[in-house]
Amino acid sequence: MTNKIKSVAVYCGHEFGNNPQYAKDARKVGELLARNKITFVFGGGNVGVMGAAAESALQNGGEVIGISTPHVMSKQEPVLEGIDTKIVDGISARKEEMFDLSDAFIILPGGIGTLNELTDILTKQQVGESCKPIIFMNTAKYWDFLGQVMTHMDHEGFIESMDDYNIIVVNTPEELIRKLLDDDNLVTTCKAF
């Protein structure tokens, strides 16, 4: 059986955060994607959790594609060397290019930029423009707070049922790769559409 997922966009922080487990899990995710020949698409930077994951994918023989902007490259995220890098005009173009190149999305711990990228994907699901799977790597329960917020929005009637989104939450990199490789776990149509 051939896996439908050939490439994933990996969204995560350009900082390491306060828990060393974030970078450790990010490196393992990069390694497992490379070993399973799943292309790693990301923001291009060589810093923080983002750099740790991408560098690990590259070191393990994976295909790594960076999408960056001149402003971000010069200010915050020097580009990881040895990868294919595409330069686009701005953050919106960066997100669209990453979306177009990816069959699924992995959300590692991150900050405001990661939330921005995530809400774009969730909005695309909500309005029926996408049903590509979103997999949260819930290292050290990092994303529990977001689950609580979304459950609250659901209970208060501001979003459809959480069951209508193509979201998978995992706690380990090994569980993440198992889910990615199991086509039965990756529905192709969201319930809301």
What does it look like?
By secondary structure, this protein is α/β, with parallel strands linked by helices. It has one domain: Rossmann fold (3-Layer(aba) Sandwich). The protein is 42% helix and 16% strand. It is built from seven helices and seven strands; from the N terminus they run E-H-E-H-E-H-E-H-E-H-E-H-E-H. Strands 4-3-2-1-5-6-7 form a seven-stranded parallel beta sheet, with helices on both faces. Helix 6 (144-155) links the parallel strand 6 and strand 7 (167-170). Helix 1 packs parallel to helix 2 and helix 1 packs parallel to helix 7. The longest helix is centred in the first third of the chain and has 16 residues, at 20-35. It starts with 6 loop residues before the first strand and ends in a 12-residue tail after the last helix. The mean pLDDT is 89.
* Principal-axis shape: globular
Order of helices and strands: EHEHEHEHEHEHEH
Portion of residues in beta strands equals 15-25%
Helix content: 40-55%
Number of domains: 1
Task: Describe the SSE topology.
Elements: E1 7-11, H1 20-35, E2 39-42, H2 48-59, E3 64-68, H3 70-75, E4 84-87, H4 91-101, E5 104-107, H5 112-126, E6 134-137, H6 144-155, E7 167-170, H7 173-181
Parallel strand pairs: 1-2, 1-5, 2-3, 3-4, 5-6, 6-7
Helix pairs in contact: 1-2, 1-7
Write out key terms for the chains shown.
about 190 residues, alpha/beta, Rossmann fold, 7-stranded parallel beta sheet
TL;DR?
The protein is an alpha/beta fold. It contains seven helices and seven strands, in the order βαβαβαβαβαβαβα.
